[in-house]
Model the fold of this input.
Amino acid sequence: MAQQHQKEFRNWVEKGRSLLLSPTFKQRSERVVLTLAIVSYLCHLLLIALSKQGLIQTDIALFSSPISAIYTPFSFILVYEVYLLLFYLPKSTTFYIGKQYEIITLIVIRRIFKDLGELKLVSNWFENASDLQFTYDVVTSLVLFLLIYLFYHKIVKRPIAEVDESGLHAGPTAQFVFLKKGLALVLVPVLVGLAVYSFSTWVAIVVDNQLSGMAALSNINTIFFDDFFTILIIVDVLLLLASFYYSDHFHTIIRNSGFVLSTILIKLSFSVSGILNNALIIGSVLFGLLILYIHQLYERAHLTSR
Done:
């Protein structure tokens, strides 16, 4: 009887995954997101034009320049990256972590377009807070781009024996992958609900008190992504604890623990601003890259000792 219920539960998870996390649904979602990104970009440009004509009164930097309009379609691209993170969660822990790094990089790049609307272009560049933040973000995005390349490069070049990236055997691997499929499926409605809640809360603030709403907009990362990375930390810790059932390899445990710490550093970056924010973001990705590199050194030493 218990085996029958377990089989039915597995079938339910597989059906849900084929519906929400299948390659077909992924392609459809990509088209929808791209369409919304284009439409939102045109709408943002229209609002900027109305603001320039004086038909809309606002001091928000996002409506001061057509360049700032790029900020809006990037927000939709970020939503799609969140979906890709769930899509890759059952497939590979390292690619799942890589998607976290892509998301925080896109957040920084999106912030650059917001920074462009606040540039002063003064001679004392390094004494102006807005110009300094723009410089920090540009440098940070370049460093992150390189670190993510190195991170994926380490994944692709790993030995064939490391394809079982959780350090597990065939039987336990199947159980661990099923667990990740279930988590990914549960996270889909959770993150959709979080997105709706975050946006509706901000709209309510704007309607109730426009100044508070605009203050929230000035720190756009507090909308959705702060809570999003909190959820990711919970998921990462669950995966870490579950991995103890299937693997007692020291280097694998340290690697998974390191990935949790990397996500926590990203989460902490939302609580600070300025150069400390950028340093925490770079530090989180660099830490994850070094953890992966050392893990693979252990794997190669283990292989050669056989």
User: Anything to note?
Assistant: Confidence is low (pLDDT under 50) at residues 159-170. Residues 264 and 290 are 16 Å apart (CA to CA).
